[in-house]
Amino acid sequence: MIIYLFKRVKNINRFKAVLDSKGQEMVRLDRDINIEGEPFLTRGQRKEEIVKAYDYDIWESADHKEHIIKAWPAEKYNRYTECPECTFRTYKLNKRITTRAATYSHEGQAKLINECSFCKKTEFIKWITLAMLVESSSSSGSSSGSSSSSSSSSSSSWGGGSSSGGGTGGSW
Hints:
The protein is mostly beta strands. The longest helix has 13 residues, at 2-14. Helix content is 12%, strand content 31%. It has helices at 2-14, 43-50; strands spanning 27-28, 54-60, 67-73, 80-81, 91-100, 108-116, 122-130, 162-165, 168-171. The strands form three sheets. Strands 4-5-6-7 form a four-stranded antiparallel beta sheet, with no helix packed on it.
């Protein structure tokens, strides 16, 4: 409930109408219809939307002579940074690419790189050794890390028992 209210308050400003230079309310483009944001978004801005670094809202004046583009951090905003080459927020840091998978008999290998999803700038960081796979062992098929047991004794007469659990105890 708290998260819902936080998101709602955060989005109030996002969907509040923007005014053009004449003080008239602009209309927000329906991105379900114009998915690509054409002709307003650049290819780099569209790539930022695809990788979910930014969401762009496009506002257009009623006379179609003015437009405003507003950027909003999207779901994966923190996973990307601004690319030093193209300046779009499509640069993924410390991306691990496996070049040889680890097996039960051999170690694997991967490289750590920084890579831009838009302009494809790539910067090599280092090689990583991937540990060999290890077969898991299990004992008697038990999937529980702990177990409990209880025992009771019986006799030919009724009564004389006791019980406890759940914070209560009693006898009969």
